[in-house]
Amino acid sequence: MSSFVVRAAVGPADREACFAVRKEVFVVEQRVSAEIEYDTFDAENADTVHVLAVDADGQPLGTGRLLHGEAAADKTGGDPSVGSLGRLAVSKAARGLGVGVALVRAIEEAARERGLAAVDLHAQTHALGFYERLGYVAYGAEFLDAGIGHRAMRRAL
């Protein structure tokens, strides 16, 4: 299973595939409450872009999303030139295949297409090295989100 494609998630079936990966990773593996995993930004709207990685058979492997505009304001200090990468998840079976890197790059490309200058994210502390290798720089103190340690990170585009 080394062949996959990353694309924008369009329509209800794609969004459900994204949610299935997030449920596997966040709700089941990491025991994040489903009530806080899913939010108002999961609905299809102009300020949210969902991306989906699928294998050659169309099975979902990973997902992530970009918030921009008003949707990102709470996560970026209100800076309209900065997008917020979040809900990045790769199924256990697909880890180590480059899916996470491809998802991050697709989200960055979506941010560039929307004229954004940078992307922020809140990384789980165990994933700091992954994001650092992709050019993100941590800032601020560690904080808890869903009981998991996180750090804010940013990459200029």
Can you offer a commentary on this structure?
- There is one protein chain.
- With 157 residues, the protein is an alpha+beta fold.
- Helix content is 28%, strand content 35%.
- It has 4 helices and 7 strands, in the order βααβββαβαββ.
- A 7-stranded mixed sheet has the order 1-2-3-4-5-7-6, with helices on both faces.
- Helix 3 (99-113) links the parallel strand 4 and strand 5 (118-124).
- The longest helix is centred in the N-terminal third of the chain and has 19 residues, at 11-29.
Overall mean pLDDT stands at 94
The portion of residues forming beta strands comes to 35-45%
How would you describe the shape?
globular
Number of strands: 7
Structure characteristics:
35% strand; 157 residues; single chain; alpha+beta
Summary of the model, kept short:
The protein has 157 residues and is of the alpha+beta class.
SSE blueprint and pairings:
Layout: E1 4-8, H1 11-29, H2 34-37, E2 48-55, E3 60-67, E4 82-90, H3 99-113, E5 118-124, H4 128-133, E6 137-145, E7 148-156
